[in-house]
Structures are given as structure tokens and as C-alpha cells.
Amino acid sequence: MLKLGVPSKGRLMEKTFDWFGARGLTMVKDGGEREYSGTVDGFDGLQLVLLSAGEIPRELAAGRIHLGVTGSDLVRDKLAHWDDQVEELAEMGFGHADLVIAVPSFWVDVDTLDDLDAAASAFRRRHGFRLRIATKYHQLVREFLTWNGVADYQLVDSQGATEGTVRHETAEAIADITSTGETLRANHLKILSDGTIHGSQATLFRARNAEWTDEDRELLARLIRKID
Ligand SMILES: Nc1ncnc2c1ncn2[C@@H]1O[C@H](COP(=O)(O)OP(=O)(O)OP(=O)(O)O)[C@@H](O)[C@H]1O
Ligand SMILES: O=P(O)(O)OC[C@H]1O[C@H](OP(=O)(O)OP(=O)(O)O)[C@H](O)[C@@H]1O
């Protein structure tokens, strides 16, 4: 059985079903709405496993699924050395969102990462603790800031409504996903001019560490012919 992990709900699920459908692969959920498994019409041996988009990277890395659809941001954030663990088979052209660093709009002197670094040092001197950046993308943000020489900060975990942390004074800046920019604007935040960490989209991944039988490989080759 070739196992394909697909998002079980939310913005990515419907579009994933549409994307495969447009390529002649009609996905069908087993049983009722809440049964988290399914099949693909006319494609025996391919089993759908419906999972939270956020869990698909871990399931791929563990080899519990052979293939998986999720945001490229989630794979990069959740898997250390992600490209050793998974291979990108197809960028799917939906689920676009940018992971960005944003600061309060009224910080007129802070427009770049260098400005943020200077502001962070000044903040620490003035307040006696490090400037707080709220995010759920810990690994990606840390790597990006280290690479860009920003040091005097601390990450605070925020699993949702991240833009609100600045207004509620639990963080001074944020790193989060944006697509229309509306949430940032509503919370009086601006993106640093060089503060885009990753441009994400839904992507089909192959697990390098899953067990691949000859039959699985044949199924994968057949699947790839369909989607190419
Ligand atoms: N406007 C947007 N806001 C947030 N994420 C978006 C947006 N557009 C696309 N995405 C992408 O959707 C994916 C997250 O989807 P979603 O929030 O449905 O999954 P999840 O984190 O697994 O949710 P849950 O944990 O509630 O199941 C990420 O890859 C993200 O980049
Ligand atoms: O640029 P925009 O179009 O305004 O979209 C960005 C918002 O959408 C996401 O939140 P989501 O709806 O997933 O809720 P969450 O805060 O619970 O993550 C993301 O975390 C931003 O808050």
C-alpha cells in the first residue's frame, strides 16, 4: 500500500482534492466526513491518510506515509535538514503565503533587519530583557535571524492570533504567515523590507525514509506520469 497524507481540513484540504481531481485522480473519503481515510478512484494500492497539515512533515520523516501534501513552510520548520528527509515532487500552485518578520508600524526607524538588530540592542539596554518575537515557526525564524546577524532577541511561542501579541504587549515583534496582509494591517504591523523568510505553497513531498517496495515504486511512477 502506498500511503498518501493529505490535509484533513482547512484551507489546504479542498484545494488538494481539486488539484488531484484536475489530473484525473479523484479522491474519495471513506465513510462519513469524519472518517480520516480514503482512496483514489481507479488507483488500487494508493491509500489516503487524512491528517492535520501540521503533522504531515513528521509523518513523512517517520516514514509512516510515503507521500504527503502540506505547506513548504511547515516542512522546513518542523524537519531539521528537511531535504535529507523528504523530496519535493511538485509545487501545487495554491496555499501561497509568506512567512515574514513584522514590527509595529510606528517604529519609523525600523525598516530592515539591521535596524531591528540595532533596536533589539537598544531595547535590551533600556528594559533589561531581550526584545520578544512571537511565532510558531521557531526553527525557520531562528535560522533566518542568525544568518542575518540579528542576535539580541528571544522567541516567544504563539500558536495562533500571533499578530495580537504586540497589541497585548506579550511581544514587540512577530514572525508569521501572511497572504492578503489584512491581519498585519489590522494590527498596525509592517513587514521589514528584507524580512521575508520563506514564500510558502502547498507541495507534494516524497518520504525518503519510508519503506518502498517494488510495487510502491511502480505506483509512484504511475502517479508521477499522471501529475507531470
Ligand atoms: N492566509 C493563510 N494563513 C495561514 N496559513 C496559510 C494561509 N494561506 C496558506 N497557508 C498555509 O496553510 C498551511 C497551514 O494550514 P492550516 O492552518 O490549515 O493547517 P494546520 O496548521 O495543520 O492547522 P491545524 O493545526 O488547525 O490542523 C501552512 O502551510 C500555511 O503556509
Ligand atoms: O494576510 P492574511 O490574509 O490576513 O492572513 C494571515 C493570517 O492567517 C493566518 O491565521 P489563521 O487564519 O490560520 O489563524 P491562526 O491565527 O489561528 O493561525 C495567519 O496566522 C495570519 O494570522
Q: Counting H and I runs of at least 4 residues, what is the number of helices? A: 9
Task: Note poorly predicted spans.
Answer: none
- Give me the CATH superfamily of the largest domain: Periplasmic binding protein-like II
The CATH topology of the largest domain is given as: D-Maltodextrin-Binding Protein, domain 2
Which descriptor suits the 3D outline?
elongated
**N to C succession of SSEs:** EHEEEHEHHEEHEHEHEHEEH
Task: Write up this protein.
It is a single chain. The protein has nine helices and twelve strands. The chain folds into two domains: 2-95 and 201-227, Periplasmic binding protein-like II (D-Maltodextrin-Binding Protein, domain 2), CATH 3.40.190; 97-199, D-Maltodextrin-Binding Protein, domain 2 (3-Layer(aba) Sandwich). The protein is α/β, with parallel strands linked by helices and 228 residues long. The longest helix has 15 residues, at 113-127. The strands form two sheets. A seven-stranded mixed sheet has the order 2-3-4-1-5-12-6. The protein has a five-stranded mixed sheet with strand order 9-8-10-7-11. The site of 1-O-pyrophosphono-5-O-phosphono-alpha-D-ribofuranose has 12 residues, from strand 10 and helix 8.
What labels would you give this structure?
228 residues, alpha/beta, D-Maltodextrin-Binding Protein, domain 2, 2 domains, seven-stranded mixed β-sheet, five-stranded mixed β-sheet, 9 helices, 34% helix, elongated, binds adenosine-5'-triphosphate, binds 1-O-pyrophosphono-5-O-phosphono-alpha-D-ribofuranose
How is the topology of this model organized?
Elements: E1 2-7, H1 10-21, E2 27-29, E3 37-40, E4 46-51, H2 56-61, E5 67-71, H3 72-78, H4 82-85, E6 86-91, E7 97-104, H5 113-127, E8 131-135, H6 138-147, E9 153-157, H7 164-167, E10 173-178, H8 182-186, E11 189-200, E12 202-207, H9 214-227
Parallel strand pairs: 1-4, 1-5, 8-9, 8-10
Antiparallel strand pairs: 2-3, 3-4, 5-12, 6-12, 7-10, 7-11
Helix pairs in contact: 3-6
The structure holds adenosine-5'-triphosphate (ATP) and 1-O-pyrophosphono-5-O-phosphono-alpha-D-ribofuranose.
